[in-house]
Description:
This protein has 319 residues and is an alpha/beta fold. It has helices at 16-24, 44-52, 71-81, 100-107, 138-146, 161-166, 181-190, 218-235, 242-262, 265-275, 291-301, 305-318, and strands at 3-9, 31-37, 59-64, 86-89, 95-96, 114-122, 127-130, 157-160, 194-205. Helix 7 (181-190) packs parallel to helix 8 (218-235), helix 9 packs antiparallel against helix 10 (265-275) and helix 11 (291-301) runs antiparallel to helix 12.
Amino acid sequence: MLISVVIPVYNTSSYLARCIDSIFEQDLKDVELIFIDDCSTDNSFEVLNQCLKGRESENLTIVKNPKNLGSGETRNKGISLAKGDYVIFVDSDDYVTSDYFQVLKNAIESRPDIVVFDMTEIWSNKTVLKHVDLPDSPLESVELLLLNKMHNSLCNKMFKRSMFLKHDIRITKGLSMFEDKSICFKLFYYAKSQLYIDKSLYFYDRSRENSLTKVFKESNIQASVIVAKVIDDFFKDKEVSDNIHNAIQANKVHVLGYIGLYCGRTTRSKYAKELGKLPFSAFSQKCKMPIHYRIASFAVNYKLYPILFVIRRLYFLCK
């Protein structure tokens, strides 16, 4: 069986060699590599070609987008180009273990729909193992993904390519953040089987000072609202368990708390309206959420602006 690896490249010239070396130092039989440069503004495309020069691989594709598409659309392009039985994603500023492909090849012998494994976050001053407690069924995984109790990253998950094709699943267009969250829950919803590898196979480098995950932007809030609406639209014509229904509501509470803490009055009203008023029961759901987010979301939902003012002041004073 063939594994297709989609590697988007954008302004990562300082990290590309590390990523490529980690891939090419192992057996690439039955592995398809798809590198897609998303119109990098540094010399990433030149570095990419230089690093791949003389490297031997049976299935190697190098593509340069005609215009900048963003991470999500570039990954979608990789899904369309892939020919493998399975698709997995590697970011070009990250890297993988020396047994990455061998472990994955062993895992798909039983042909699971989804393979999940641990990963290691690399910070400037520490490393953190992100262990996955995979539940018994894919539907239980959907619940955990919506509650942010399971990491939504695509980079520690491998999927049967047929799932993307059969259910026309693609990353939502126009997202600047949370692209992974817009698609992960759908793949698990349709999956019939999942397999967990109790091993860290991926190094997620979070040490970059200009990392989008470290910088607050209003576009992040907009993206979180879009994803909440994507989740609503996906489930609106489907029968779901109480647990998943509650998880959908809890995710909205989290997003509304984000809106309450960071948005000004005008944008706060706009995004809150787009989410819709939440029922009182939504605020008692168990989920991975700081208490100040829960209070802020409650205040926005019921227009308790004096409470919102206080919690915002306390939050930014303590931050």
